[in-house]
Amino acid sequence: VRNAYAFRSLAGLNLGYQLVIDGYTQKMQSQPLPDVQAGDSIRLDLPLSKSALKKARKRGQEVQLNLFVTLDKAATWAPAGHIVAQRQFQLADRAPLPEIRTKGGKLSVERTSDAVRVKGDGLDATFDAKTGQMTALTLGGRAVLAPGQSFVYTNQRYIENDKFGKTTNGLDATGSIQVDERDGLVVVTTARKGSLCSIDVTYTLSPAGTVDVDARFAPHAENLRRAALMCCVDSSLNHVDYYAYGPWENHVDRKDGVLVGRYSTTVEGMFEEYVKPQSMGNREGLRSLRLTDADGRGVQIDTEGDVSFSVLPWTDEDLMNAKHLWEMEPRPYLVLQLNAYMRGLGNASCGQDVDTLPIYWVPNQPMSYKLRLSAVE
Q: Could you tell me if 235 and 263 are in contact, meaning their C-beta atoms sit under 8 angstroms apart?
């Protein structure tokens, strides 16, 4: 522990620590910090449970260590227990998604000149035969996608003063689709080229009622704002439980004040009261997301790879064109963004040659992630 204060020692501060296993916080422990003078440091050994770590790693569970420095007594500016510093360390990485379950009834495939439809017990998905986009999805008897909406690539992210107002996704008008049936699974392979980014999405549908979405992005431009799939989901799925960085908005270049954990909110709770509406509500490092209605039914999305997300009742174009948040009319669906990468927030608002640091640009190289969609009943 290094004392970065200029004039005070660490006496009067406590060090709190806890393990976080698969996003669930364990018992908090605490010990007083010694009298370490400004600029000095000390090594502290924490009595963590070796058996808990060993069991978690054996089970393939993700483990983090949360550290908090807090005030022992109230100060004139803050109450006792106020957090003055925090840090999270990764002790065990999360495991990849488990193998797809193939048990269940047989899936059926219906093909027409316009669409491909895959049906099974609690699963019903439709794909556009010309673009390859998924245009309808029902899981556990509950509609996930809003009528007429689909999974589609999007590039837009609007930050005020960014001087980047393009809304097109640059995709070709048509794409390709191929359907294969093997080992009880239905695999729908789609591809679509674009001037900004080409995208290949493979959907693996299981008789167990799950849909795996393997998305691969191939950017062709230096100044992309997003590499993402956007889908518009049923507006009643407005309860949001997520396992990611939180509890408040964060971005690839704004993560120092947030911790990986499990958080609950609503779509309204993801609004940010910016003076001028702009892209908002992003959460980095998504592991798992549940969108449910008032009865607790909906969809769960588990991830593999780097994914960030937001869910709002507006598109980024709506936010770009609005003057005030209170004037905005919600769309009849929720806009779910699932980003392989979204450009950082830094922009040229302070003058020329001041922009997002290059390390936070959308990489001009192939990116991918995997999603597993299942019903929450």
A: no
Q: What is the pTM of this model?
A: 0.95
Token pair of 295 as six digits: 């009865």
pLDDT value at 351 more than 70: no
Chain-centroid distance of CA 305 in Å reads 10
pLDDT digits (tens, 9 = 90+) for 263-305: 999 999 999 999 999 999 999 999 999 999 999 999 999 999 9
Least Cα distance to 372 among 98, 116, 179 occurs for 98
Contacts 24+ apart (CB under 8 A), 244-249: 244/283, 244/284, 244/285, 244/286, 244/287, 244/289, 244/308, 244/309, 245/283, 245/284, 245/285, 246/283, 249/280, 249/281, 249/282, 249/283
Tens digits of residue pLDDT in 184-193: 999 999 999 9
Could you tell me which residues come within 8 angstroms of residue 276 by beta carbon, excluding any fewer than 6 positions away?
Answer: 160, 323, 324
Structure tokens at 346: 């830094």
Place 349 in a pLDDT band, splitting at 50, 70 and 90: low
What pLDDT score does 352 carry?
66
Listed residue (205, 222, 197) closest to 116, CA to CA: 205
